[in-house]
Amino acid sequence: MLITGANGMIGSDLVNLFSKKNKVFAIFRNHNSISKSLKNKNIIWIKHDFKKKFYNKIKPKIIIHCAGVHSFSKKNHYNDFIKSNIIGLSNVLDFASRKKVKKIIHISSVDVYGKIKNSKIDETSPSINPSLLGCSKLLMEKMISKEKIDYLNIRVPGVVGYLVNNPEYPWISNIVNKMRENKQVEIYNGDKLFNNILDTLEIFKFIEKVKNRNLKKQIVNLSATKPVILKKLILYMRYMLDSKSHIVLNGKKSKHFIISNKKLSKLYNYKASTTEDIIKRYIKNFII
């Protein structure tokens, strides 16, 4: 298999996990500690920027596309989204076509839904004035759907990782980091249900289950199951971390929604880990 963005937060964990039993062509743009240190006989690191066409003799059966600009990227202006997300995917698809790659899995984002008005979203929810990230991901999904290839667009919420961990993003990482330093934590919608979280292990587990099956050319949400009242979750996190952080419940209203996994469960018979279980294993393995 070929994994793009292989030394990024999502890509690095997928390379690490899949390479235990699979040969992985790990494509990265710039060297970092992961591309320099993560080594085993199944990983072949290849330096390439997909802003340019990719010519290589390798012939992977499946591509997992993780590369691209995100809202938390250092360079996230309009041109960066165009070059990295749109042109980058175009060159990935060009390579896939020339090499007759059978499947592509694209890590998309719930940002495609934009300004969410309902308390629950599913794959039929409308896209209302999405951000640059959301717009680019929508276009990327459409580009993939036009190709003669079996595909899966996986829309994910804030994702936490393990080999690469940004203590400021997503929101849960920021909270955990503050609690470890016993800083004050302010939360909104404390009385609302929350499942807007995922970790890279869950992404791996789902792809591992479906990668050898017919992907069905679908768009699916993948998020934690069993939403939890946010205030209870935050207090539980403080307990797990043995933190002395003061929790401030801000009564000001802000955007809030939970994510439905029903389509994913129905199509692929897959049940994601619960919100509580994902938080547990993330805190257990949190790295700054």
Verbal overview:
- The protein has 288 residues and is of the alpha/beta class.
- Helix content is 35%, strand content 19%.
- It has nine helices and 15 strands.
- The chain has helices at residues 9-18, 33-37, 78-98, 132-145, 171-180, 200-210, 230-240, 262-268, 275-285; strands at 2-4, 24-28, 43-47, 62-65, 103-109, 120-121, 150-156, 159-160, 185-188, 193-194, 198-199, 218-221, 228-229, 247-250, 258-259.
- Strands 3-2-1-4-5-7-12 form a seven-stranded parallel β-sheet, sandwiched between helices.
- Helix 1 crosses helix 6 and helix 3 (78-98) runs parallel beside helix 4.
- The radius of gyration is 19 Å and the shape is globular.
- The mean pLDDT is 94.
Average predicted confidence as pLDDT: 94
The percentage helix is: 25-40%
**From the coordinates shown, what is the CATH architecture of the largest domain?**
3-Layer(aba) Sandwich
- Using the coordinates above, name the CATH class of the largest domain: Alpha Beta
What is the H/E order?
Answer: EHEHEEHEEHEEHEEEHEEHEEHH
Number of helices: 9
CATH topology of the largest domain: Rossmann fold
Q: State the separation between the terminal residues, measured CA to CA.
A: 29 Å
Mind telling me the C-alpha Rg?
19 Å
Q: What's the shape? A: globular
How many domains, in number, for the residues? Answer: 2
Largest sheet, spatial ordering of strands: 3-2-1-4-5-7-12
Number of strands: 15
Q: Give the amount of beta strand, in percent.
A: 15-25%
Low-confidence spans: pLDDT under 50, at least 5 residues?
none
